[in-house]
Specification:
Largest sheet: 20 strands, parallel
Strand content: 35-45%
Distance between the termini: 46 Å
Structural class: mainly beta
Radius of gyration: 22 Å
Length: about 475
Amino acid sequence: MKRSFVQLVALILELLLFGKPLWVVSSSSLCKETSSGIDRPHSVSITEFGAVGDGLTMNTKAFENAIFYLNSFADKGGAQLFIPKGQWLTGSFMLISHLTLHIDKDAQILGSTNSNDWPVIDPLPSYGRGRELPGGRHRSLIYGCNLTDVIITGDNGTIDGQGSVWWNWFRSETLNYTRPHMVELIDSKDVIISNLTFRNSPFWNIHPVYCSQVIVQNVTIIAPLDSPNTDGIDPDSSDDVCIEDCYISTGDDLIAIKSGWDEYGISYAHPSTNIIIHRLVGQTTSSSGIAIGSEMSGGVSQIHVEDVHFFNSNRGFSIKTSRGRGGYVRNVFITGVILSNLKVALKFNGNYGEHPDESYDPDALPSIEKISIQNVTGKNIKVAGHLEGIEGDTFKHICLSDITLDVRSKSPWICSNVEGFSEMVSPDICKPLEPKINPDSKCYQMSNHLRSIRPRNKGTSLQ
């Protein structure tokens, strides 16, 4: 409790220093018609199926029965499952199409602390194995596959994975399978996750994989800063994703954009593209505010980041890759960044290593190009940039402009195997990026074909 209070005070001080919170900054939204805008013609409460919200009674069967019942309304405009005030303990359960899961403001869905309540499922084809261990992986607390028109929302209700038991099992190396995520949706479209608090995920929090038209808006994601691999939001081999107005404080990357791992990601060939991140605030003492990779073998492109604030963190923005990854990262545009109390503002790591098995091709080199970062300010930064490409595979067209960082290190920029352009960068940039930006440079700019993200279930389409 004391630590949380100290962190809250630190956040308030940061906001006083840098102005009003970014989540209330006036800005046009690219996430259109969100949250609970759909009126489902049929709604039931979890209590109607025998659930007990005492935090002790196991309610997995009640969730399964309720959702089975609501499936009969899928072709009648869909249905809503309402979670009222209480603590609703459950194991993993599956969603259906045309469903709203609505969690009341005083309601908490609690993940079971018994691993048997989290079934083991096959690995993702773009990973070839569990992310942490060979073989399968535990299914997420809230799970769905091949779904359309799914809304997970509430009045700032809470989903708590009670992940500390999983973190302890992970640290003691007693797990047989990869830990479960909090929410994972696979091969799904028209997804909205909004107005909720996520706490203490066993592993990654929100993981849309092979998905399209996904909106994550107005969510708070919290886990202890030393909790292992509790990523906030990880769009993975997904397109048309919009993340806006979120606060994240976790033990790993706040947002990590991914697209498969080495030969499996190359073979599956499902890129992440057209991903928009607006008004994000958070901290992570172990990792990055926004990361691309390290699993990026299917390709990542058309990334737009604007109005973000990271404080008391390890890194601001990072690209993680290595020999054997293949794939590409290109057409990334980042602007409007506030950093305070960071170890490294920008980090490119071309030697991240960590392969799924020995079958990867070491000659599969990633292509990293057209990364534009502008309008960045930072206070109390240890290192401005540690930009390390791959020998024989230079990261190209890295463009930095209008960047002012208060840096403590006598060597503010460390660069190798990168090339590009810069202007108005303080402290002075490293030599490979010294050439001035000019109209004929190959810097990536905000493209005209960036699309607004609109779920099609409301009669709208991508514009």
